[in-house]
Amino acid sequence: MRHQPASSLEHLSESELTAQLEAELLPKHVAVIMDGNGRWAELRGLPRIAGHREGINSVREMISQCLELGIKILTIYAFSQENWNRPTHEINALMGLLEHYLSTERASLIEQQVRFQAIGRLELLPPSARHWVHTTEQETAHLDKMILNVALSYGGRAEIVDAVRGLLDDIRTGTVEAEQIDQALFQQYLYTHPLPDPDLLIRTSGEARISNFLLWQLAYTELCFTPTLWPDFRRREFLLALLEFQKRERRFGRVLSALPS
Length: 261
Ligand code: IPE
Ligand code: IPE
Ligand code: MG
Hints:
- 43% of the residues lie in helices and 14% in strands.
- The chain is of the alpha/beta class.
- It has a single domain (7-155, 195-247), classed as Undecaprenyl pyrophosphate synthetase, CATH 3.40.1180.
- The longest helix is centred in the middle third of the chain and has 24 residues, at 88-111.
- The radius of gyration is 19 Å and the shape is globular.
- The chain starts with 5 loop residues before the first helix and ends in a 14-residue tail after the last helix.
């Protein structure tokens, strides 16, 4: 089927959009920079935390949509290393929301057979948030319908530095020889190992930057920037992003004629 240009898709219903998806062209791993919660709230005269709270509903919808479509890995940026520079009351509110989400949503994740994993400098999280992160990881470790990977206290540069440290430890103990270092070996030390790199990155709220997210892993990821604020990014918006991804020609540096069919 020939695809319609993205602009002509805007007026289609959710089921019409879904009908345009081609299973073999769906991404296996989607990464999301969930941005714009604060602006969503400010536009409504609400405190910023109201936007973060509403954003959880978008997360819930995206998880169920990934399950429906068979998208196996979803990595979401929930709290960056740089977000520690926000006012204490916002940090506390975000940590409270994280705890509330994990403590109340665990049962639903288990029921949906979703494995929860967290990446980032988790040791910086308050003890109670860390407790719920570890509990949810343990309770869902055996599930395999989908992986929900949540970046918390995460920085891409810190991840690379931590990988170098891990590699040096193994060189010191003799587990690894310096001569063995190549890209394949190095990426085994990243937080995301053994997950494949994301095929699609979505950033909401109109900002066109990476903000220190998955710097190594995004090397050949298709980037999709949308002006929609995260709390408004629901099922239709995700379908539009997937249809946009479907149209992209992933060349990986080669010329079109040499691509495997
Ligand atoms: C993204 O929304 C969520 C986090 C960074 C935790 P923001 O809080 O950055 O919302 P804006 O960008 O200020 O609108
Ligand atoms: C990126 O959003 C981090 C998360 C979505 C968790 P920010 O709102 O913190 O990014 P900047 O500061 O605008 O780059
Ligand atoms: Mg922001």
